[in-house]
Amino acid sequence: MSDLPPVVVRMMKGSLLFFPVLGVLFWVSTPLGFLAAFYLAFLLELLPALALAQLPLVDDEEPLPRIPVYLSSAVLILLIGGMGLGVGAGAFGLEAMGLRSMDWPSLGLWTLGLTAAAMALLGLFLLLRRAFGASESSLLRELLPNTGAEKGVFVLLSLAAGLGEEIAYRGFLIPALAGIIGWSWGAAVLSSVLFGLLHGYQGWLGIFRTAALGFVLAASFIITGVLWPAIIAHAILDMIAGILLGETLLKE
């Protein structure tokens, strides 16, 4: 990739400087403990800022080493989710994070329904993109797996994303925000916006699309109180969109 533009460097520096300030503010002004407050600041400010800093790079067409990118991304996502699991378990408990049992028929039906709803939403965004003549980012196109080896590693990335991102952005973030603003659905909207910003590498279209998908997953978590359908549907959706339908969904 090309060198980072000055605006990206400034955004990254600013977000790093503001992060501890926001963490302390959450710590002293909310019921959250020290670790939960700083993890909330990490999800609420630092990660979205770093993701938005990717926007000037979305048209970079230089070849990417896909497998190393997939593996490093999977490790990072699992680390973020692992932090959310540890911090959230101490702050709210695993049940409040949706990590509790669900009977198999309900799990299957919810997972199937979520996957179908997410696929329908992808189809809607495809129609809207073509109707308005919008285009996908070159970086997103470059990230699609091509070879058998790349697709195999992409499956691992999809599983990591389903687990790590759902624990962080639904399992932790929704209870944390709901405890502050007192409204679970408002927390779902805000967490979905932040989830969309996390995917800045997809460009503005991808940000809106991912935020909408995030809200669908958040809704299932709020309605059922269980995170597993969202985790499984998220992983399945990533595999379908990235491996089976990637070229179709990105076709102009």
How is this structure best summarized?
The protein has about 250 residues and is mostly helical. Helix content is about 80%, strand content about 0%.
If you had to describe this structure to a student in words, what would you say it looks like?
The chain is mainly alpha-helical and 252 residues long. It has one domain. Helix content is 78%, strand content 0%. The chain contains ten helices and no strands. Helix 2 packs across helix 7, helix 4 packs antiparallel against helix 8 and helix 6 runs antiparallel to helix 7. It is globular, with a radius of gyration of 18 Å.
List keywords for this structure.
single chain, 252 residues, mainly alpha
**Number of DSSP-assigned strands:** 0
Please state the CA-atom Rg, rounded to the nearest Å: 18 Å
The largest β sheet comes out as:
none
Element-level helix/strand string: HHHHHHHHHH
Secondary structure topology:
Elements (H helix, E strand, L loop, with lengths): L5 H24 L4 H19 L13 H26 L12 H29 L5 H5 L5 H34 L2 H15 L4 H22 L3 H17 L1 H5 L2
Helix pairs in contact: 1-2, 2-7, 3-6, 4-8, 4-9, 6-7, 6-9, 7-8, 8-9
